[in-house]
Design goal:
Shape: globular
Largest sheet: 4 strands, antiparallel
Distance between the termini: 54 Å
Number of helices: 8
Structural class: alpha+beta
Order of helices and strands: HEHHEHEEEEHHEHHEE
Strand order of the largest sheet: 3-4-5-6
Length: 237
C-alpha cells in the first residue's frame, strides 16, 4: 500500500475546515496566485506542488477544491502559467465580462460536454443589517435570458473561435462532401479530425497546444449553435 505524506500545514487547514463545516466541504482557493506568492506559475515543478497540495486537501476533507485563477493578457491562450494546471483539472469554468454582459463557460469537463456558455447577471440583494444597524448588501447570480444575450451567445467568442470559424468556412467551401450524417443534401461537410488538423496551424498558441485549442474552439462553436457536429462531421446550420 502506498503511504501518502500530508504536509502539517495542510492537515491543520483540513482540520479547521472539517471542524467548521464537516466532510464534503467545497474549498475555494482565491486566488491561486495569492495562496502561493513565492511560486513561479510558469514552472512545472512549482505548479506540480500546488496541484499536489490541492489534491491532498481534497483527500483530507472528502470534498471539492476550487482554484480561482486568471487568464493571461491574451484570454484566448487560456489560464496563466504552466499548461499542467489546465491538464490536471477535472473541470474548468471560465467567467468573462464584456461591458455589462457576463458569461460563464464550461471550458473543460473531464466526464461531460464542454464548450457550453451561459449568460448571467448579478442581482443586488439586501441582507440583515450589521451590528451597528448599517445596511448590508450582496449579489446573487441570475441567468440572463434577455434577447440580446440570447443572440450574443451564438456569436464567436474570442480570437480563437473567430479564426477557427473563418478557417472552417474555407474548408467547407472547398469540400466535395455533401449531406453527411443527416446534414441537408447539398450542405458542404468536413470531418471533425480533418478540420482540427487543418485549422490548428492557424492558431497563434504554442505548437503543442494548437490541436487542443482548435478542438476547444470548435466545441464552443458547436455548443453555441454556430456549427453543427454529428457523427464526426461538421457543417454550418
Amino acid at each position: 500500500m502506498t503511504r501518502i505524506h500530508f504536509a502539517p500545514a495542510r492537515r491543520l487547514l483540513a482540520a479547521a475546515i472539517l471542524a467548521a463545516v464537516g466532510a464534503g466541504a467545497v474549498v475555494f482557493i482565491d486566488t491561486l496566485n495569492r495562496a502561493a506568492p513565492l511560486a513561479d506559475e510558469n514552472s512545472s515543478r512549482d505548479m506540480g506542488e500546488i496541484l499536489e497540495g490541492a489534491k491532498q486537501l481534497q483527500a483530507l476533507t472528502g470534498g471539492l477544491v476550487v482554484l480561482i485563477h486568471h487568464t493571461g493578457k491574451n484570454a484566448d491562450r487560456g489560464l496563466r502559467g504552466h499548461s499542467s494546471l489546465f491538464a490536471a483539472m477535472d473541470a474548468a469554468v471560465e467567467v468573462s465580462r464584456d461591458g455589462d454582459c457576463r458569461e460563464w463557460r464550461v471550458s473543460k469537463a473531464k466526464d461531460g460536454q464542454d464548450g457550453e456558455a451561459f449568460p448571467f447577471r448579478l442581482e443586488v440583494v439586501q441582507l440583515p443589517p450589521d451590528e451597528d444597524g448599517e445596511p448590508v448588501t450582496s449579489c446573487v447570480v441570475r441567468r440572463d435570458e434577455s434577447p440580446e444575450n440570447a443572440t450574443r451567445s451564438r456569436l464567436p467568442k474570442g480570437g480563437n473561435q473567430k479564426v477557427v470559424l473563418d478557417a472552417l468556412g474555407d474548408l467547407l467551401r472547398k469540400s466535395a462532401d455533401r449531406g453527411k450524417a443527416g446534414a441537408p443534401p447539398q450542405r458542404p461537410c468536413v470531418e471533425t479530425e480533418a478540420a482540427v488538423d487543418a485549422i490548428a496551424p492557424r492558431l497563434t498558441v504554442e505548437p503543442l497546444r494548437r490541436k487542443e485549442r482548435a478542438r476547444h474552439a470548435l466545441t464552443g462553436l458547436v455548443a453555441a449553435g454556430v456549427v453543427t457536429c454529428r457523427e464526426g462531421w461538421l457543417w454550418l446550420p
